[in-house]
Amino acid sequence: MTGSPLDWREPLALAALVLVPLLALGLAWARRRRQAALATFAEAGLLPALVPDLDARRRAVRAALLVGAVLLLVVAIAGPLWGFRWEEVHREGVDLVVAIDTSRSMLATDVKPTRLARAKLAVRDLLTQLHGDRVGLVAFAGSAFVQCPLTLDYGAVRQSLDAIDVGIIPKGGTALAEAIDTSLEAFEGREGKHQAIILITDGEDHEGKVNEAAARAAERGVKVYTVGLGTAEGELIPLGGGGFVKDRAGQVVKSRLDQETLQQIAVDTGGVYLHATGASLALTDLYRDYIGTMEKRELASTLERRFEHRFQVPLALALILLVADAFVGERRVARRRRRAAAGVDAVVLASIDRGGGTAPRVRGKHGHAPATSPATAAGTAASAAATAARDERTGGAAAKGAGQHGVLMAALVLTLASIAWLDPHARTREGNRLFAAGQYDDAAKEYNEALVDHPDSALLHFNPGDADYKQGKYDEAIAAYEQVRPGDDDAHASARTAYNLGNATYRRAEGAVATDPQKALEQYAAALVAYRRAIAAAPDDVDAKLNYELVMQKRAELQKKLEEQRQQQQQDQQQQNEQQKQDQQKQDQQQQQQAGGDQQQQQKQQQGDEHQQGGGDQKQKDEAGADQQQAAQASPAPAASPGGDQQRAQAGEPHDQQQQNAAADNAEGAAAGDEPRDGEMTRQEAAALLDAQRGQEVQPGEVIRRLQGAVVAEPAQDW
User: Fold this and answer.
1) Closest CA to 431 of 419, 421, 445
2) Within this chain, do residues 156 and 222 fall inside the same structural domain, yes or no?
3) pLDDT score of 88 more than 80
4) CA count, 13 A, side-chain hemisphere, 650
5) 567 or 190: whose pLDDT is higher?
6) Which stretches within 113-153 are classed as H helix?
7) pLDDT, mean of residues 231-238
8) Could you say which of 94, 102, 350, 455 has the lowest number of CB atoms within 10 Å?
9) What is the pLDDT of residue 578?
10) In total, how many domains does the chain have?
11) Of the segments 3-12, 530-539, 580-589, 692-701, which one has the largest average pLDDT value?
């Protein structure tokens, strides 16, 4: 335990200290009244003789004891606090989130009175069976949000349940996947084997992706118990003003139960499917047979500060003073009372003797005292009666009255102290004092300690919400405000709670505009719902109306901005698609052009190779002809035979060939020394012709060297 300065649990009770001097003045006034009354009965000098057992000092002591007891009683009621100690608090149970469908199809009457009303009644019955389990509520339609965070305050859950209705979520439809995901988020990321979800719906999933959500729940170990409301035949959906819901084609819509989807969710997560028909929906059986048998865990184990209450000390002192007051009488003890009684008897007898005289004391013959005179007997009897009466009054009656007075005062002290001890607002007032001083963190701690002492008080959640709001902890503030459910007769508290809830939700929306605009829109919608509640509870609240208009404007601006961004993104996407298309076309054209250019280049290269090869052959022919001409010039030229030239011309031989043949003929004729015969070739001519043809042959290696620009070498002789 750590020491701390003296503080008070009920500081306002100290105002009762003004009663202490008033009580002292009242006792003094009563004493004077009593003395004045006695003065009218007898003279002041005779009072000690007439009432000898009265003691003024004892009466003063009793008055002081009474004043001191009242003083200590006031101090005890104020509740002095000195020091504190740390105490560990343990709570065990399971975490249970009940998700309720609030879409318009829940107004169907195939389950009496309606699907939604039947679901809410079943949840109320379920709350009566819970013991130490934390419960939360999730409302969903086209989207989902936490209506009541996990709490042990079942009264707050009932208040949140009453607020659930069709239209509480602006977005229509039934998003089962989002309902499961939101329920998982309500568990605050803890392990799933101690957690369960009860999903109450008609099963008409309009958003899809429910299988993925069920898989996420199964992965965390959270079982989903599905409850189907409705019939397979379906039922028309009534409208508030009469008629039924119709589709775009003007046909009435029937809402049918989709049991297959709900059964699949239960199977995937290890839960159970329950079909509710007519007026039967026993969630209590579901809890008893399944959820109640789950392994429980420690829901909370925290060190909490407990102030040391020191009211016992002044209370004990007050009781001691009251007991002392009971034993201290206003009269003297019995011995003094007997002396006083004897004195009174003497006074009475003296007065009688003076009136009638005294008879002589003579014994009778039998030794008995003679009878006294009638006056003496009467005086003695009167004295005895007065003494007895006085003893009765001053002894028994006084002591009895004092004892009863002390017992009554002690009972009064204990009763008042008990009432003060049971007051749930002591810590709240301390938190209010810290809140006014700007110590919001310390104030929140005081408020939370008050909640620990009185967890069933829903109104005690209001002040912690204010303290969290002042610190910028908007999520915690919203969670606190959502658990405050004042009664219908407390319109002022309802308006304040809804107004503060709207403010906190608006602040959270502002923080999400930059990072998650879609979430900001949802928070704006929730803030509008809260402001509408505030206006409904307090129609003259100007601030709530102004804030409502402000949030409407903010929401419209954000929607417009998001729409512009969406259109811009669409335009950018279209431009990007067109640009990609154009780039693809250009790329295709370039590839085609490149392919055509490569083909043309290949053709040109092939043509160049052929041209080079043909040129090489022609050049070789020219060189061979030149060699033959040189050989012909070196030998004497024979006379040409006109007939032979004419025959060769007719045979189509080229001119170079003719020259080669002539040179060969000349060489062969010169070697043989014989005259050539007309129309025949000599041996020399034939050899020369063969040499010329052999010179025209081109080897592959020579072709390559020609293409590379190398010097052409003469072919090697292989024969």
Assistant:
1) 445
2) yes
3) no
4) 6
5) 567
6) 115-127
7) 76
8) 350
9) 85
10) 4
11) 530-539
- First vs last C-alpha separation in the chain: 127
- Give residue 97's pLDDT band: very low, low, confident or very high (50, 70, 90): very high
Q: Is 421 exposed, middle or buried (0-12, 13-18, 19+ CB in 10 A)?
A: middle
Q: Kindly compute the dihedral angle of the four CA atoms of residues 630, 636, 642, 648, in this order, to the nearest 10 degrees.
A: -30
Looking up tokens 């429980």, which residue turns up? 296
CB atoms closer than 10 angstroms to residue 519: 14
Q: Which helix (H) or strand (E) holds 88?
A: strand 80-93
Determine, yes or no, domain membership for 716.
Answer: no
User: What stretches of 635-699 show up as alpha helix (H) in DSSP?
Assistant: 642-651, 655-672, 683-696
Q: Which of 164-168, 274-278, 669-673 has the lowest mean pLDDT?
A: 669-673
Q: How many CB atoms lie within 10 A of CB 283?
A: 24
Last residue within a domain, chosen from 252, 268, 295: 295
| Helix ranges restricted to H, 437-512 | 440-453, 462-470, 474-482, 491-512
Query: Which of 119-133, 174-188, 305-319, 665-679 is predicted least confidently?
Result: 665-679
CATH number at residue 180: 3.40.50.410
Residue 31 and residue 111 in one domain: no
**Of 188, 193, 174, 331, which is closest to residue 262 (Cα–Cα)?**
174
DSSP character for 716?
P
Give residue 476's pLDDT. Answer: 85
Mean pLDDT computed over every residue of the chain: 71
**Which structural domain range is residue 224 located in?**
95-295
Report whether 127 contacts 135 (CB < 8 A): yes
Tokens at 395, concatenated: 């002894």
Q: Is residue 658 included in any domain, yes or no?
A: yes
Band the pLDDT of 94: cuts 50, 70, 90: confident
Identify whether 522 is part of a domain.
Answer: yes
Query: Does the pLDDT at position 5 exceed 70?
Result: no
Do 409 and 448 sit in the same domain of this protein? no
Please indicate, yes or no, whether residues 260 and 111 belong to a single structural domain of this protein.
yes
One domain, residues 286 and 328: no
Q: How many CB atoms lie within 10 A of CB 86?
A: 11
